[in-house]
């Protein structure tokens, strides 16, 4: 087997931090109790670990521990938030609002609710990927019960102004949900002051394990939700199922570390990303997608407007990057870039490069040299 490619697809998933792995391991062996078993020490020990992790997740985002509900990941959190609210509020209204550039876990959930009789307005973003606040406000109706806008876009990395969006919702009595899967550890989140009612999280985008996530449910807003999983009344009756202590411990550890290191890590990621950006943006046929100012430090998304650009993408064996979200199968053109007006090659011949905690300047320079050589050869 040859040399492993340099990993630059951290928006798809991050490597589990070795420190997180070490905290998880005991809960896979000798500390095996069920957190719901309160009658003996094994269960009580597991419950204490679960509650410590709940507090660690809450601390990163400015929430109360009781406002954090464990799920299997952001997809389940999005489903619980959107379906749960739409079903609970159906007597008041059945209109939902979101963006065309949302993750499929939001868009497909909206489509399923449409099949069940709801109406969903899916707004086009501006050409820079950001939401037009006037268009958003104009789309809201008396029967609108929920708006869902992601904090950080998973493909182009733009940061939406959720405080402004949430304020518009709050003034209309509309529940506001935010998918923050790509945001934790990258942008500051303070749910004590942000007008957000529901927020989805996952561990594996923040150097934690796959298969574990959480949903923030504001206690101040008294959000009505209908559970989507039944069978024991776990997690305040919102999400039944035996809690995976090892994964929960891993999520807590990953969020705690993110909070401790974000102030130093984000500038380092920005420097690495900008090293790539400076080396690629001026090349002929390279188009940067999304606003570069209101954007996380870790993300660079480019389209190649070149003849035979697909050959560049197909030949990138030295580096691990992606064309679109990991959830889009079959190499289909990015729905995000199409929504930005990138038709044809602009949407199909795109490269998403996302740097992470374990990347080095040496790796970035090597990746840049590979990309430049292939792009310049393609343009000749």
Tell me what the structure shows:
The structure is a single chain. This protein is of the alpha/beta class and 380 residues long. It has two domains: 6-15 and 264-378, Aspartate Aminotransferase, domain 1, CATH 3.90.1150.10; 18-257, Type I PLP-dependent aspartate aminotransferase-like (Major domain) (Aspartate Aminotransferase, domain 2), CATH 3.40.640. 37% of the residues lie in helices and 14% in strands. It has eleven helices and twelve strands. The protein has helices at 18-24, 41-61, 74-88, 104-115, 133-139, 162-172, 245-280, 309-314, 335-339, 345-348, 361-378, and strands at residues 6-7, 68-71, 95-99, 119-123, 144-148, 175-179, 198-202, 213-217, 286-288, 299-304, 319-320, 350-354. The radius of gyration is 21 Å and the shape is globular.
Secondary-structure topology with pairs:
Layout: E1 6-7, H1 18-24, H2 41-61, E2 68-71, H3 74-88, E3 95-99, H4 104-115, E4 119-123, H5 133-139, E5 144-148, H6 162-172, E6 175-179, E7 198-202, E8 213-217, H7 245-280, E9 286-288, E10 299-304, H8 309-314, E11 319-320, H9 335-339, H10 345-348, E12 350-354, H11 361-378
Parallel strand pairs: 1-11, 3-4, 3-5, 5-6, 6-7
Antiparallel strand pairs: 2-8, 7-8, 9-10, 10-12
Helix pairs in contact: 1-7, 2-7, 3-4, 7-11
Structure keywords:
380 residues, alpha/beta, Aspartate Aminotransferase, domain 1, Aspartate Aminotransferase, domain 2, 2 domains, 7-stranded mixed beta sheet, 3-stranded antiparallel beta sheet, 11 helices, 12 strands, 37% helix, globular
């Amino acid at each position: 087997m040859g040399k492993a490619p340099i990993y630059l697809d951290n928006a798809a998933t991050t490597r589990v931090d070795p420190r997180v792995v070490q905290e998880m391991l005991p809960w896979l062996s000798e500390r095996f109790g069920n957190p719901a078993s309160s009658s003996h020490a094994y269960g009580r020990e597991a419950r204490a670990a679960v509650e410590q992790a709940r507090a660690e997740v809450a601390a990163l985002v400015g929430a109360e521990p009781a406002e954090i509900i464990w799920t299997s990941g952001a997809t389940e959190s999005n489903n619980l938030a959107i379906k749960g609210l739409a079903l609970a509020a159906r007597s008041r209204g059945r209109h939902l609002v979101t963006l065309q550039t949302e993750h499929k876990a939001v868009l497909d959930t909206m489509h399923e609710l449409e099949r069940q009789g709801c109406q969903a307005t899916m707004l086009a973003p501006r050409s820079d990927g950001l939401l037009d606040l006037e268009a958003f406000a104009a789309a809201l109706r008396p029967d609108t019960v929920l708006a869902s806008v992601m904090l950080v876009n998973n493909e182009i990395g733009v940061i939406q102004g959720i405080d402004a969006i949430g304020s518009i919702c709050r003034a209309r009595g509309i529940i506001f949900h935010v998918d923050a899967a790509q945001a934790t550890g990258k942008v500051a989140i303070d749910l004590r002051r942000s007008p957000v009612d529901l927020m989805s999280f996952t561990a594996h985008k923040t150097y934690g394990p796959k298969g574990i996530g959480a949903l923030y449910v504001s206690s101040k807003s008294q959000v009505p939700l209908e559970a989507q999983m039944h069978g024991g009344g776990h997690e305040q009756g919102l999400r039944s199922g035996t809690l995976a202590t090892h994964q929960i411990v891993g999520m807590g550890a990953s969020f705690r570390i993110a909070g401790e290191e974000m102030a130093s890590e984000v500038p380092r990621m920005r420097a690495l990303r900008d090293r790539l950006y400076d080396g690629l943006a001026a090349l002929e046929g390279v188009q940067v997608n999304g606003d570069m100012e209101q954007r996380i430090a870790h993300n660079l998304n480019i389209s190649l407007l070149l003849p035979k650009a697909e050959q560049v993408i197909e030949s990138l064996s030295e580096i691990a990057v992606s064309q679109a979200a990991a959830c889009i199968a079959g190499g289909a053109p990015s729905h995000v870039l199409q929504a930005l007006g990138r038709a044809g090659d602009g949407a199909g011949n795109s490269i998403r490069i996302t740097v992470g905690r374990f990347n080095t300047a040496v790796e970035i320079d090597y990746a840049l040299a590979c990309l430049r050589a292939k792009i310049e050869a393609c343009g000749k």
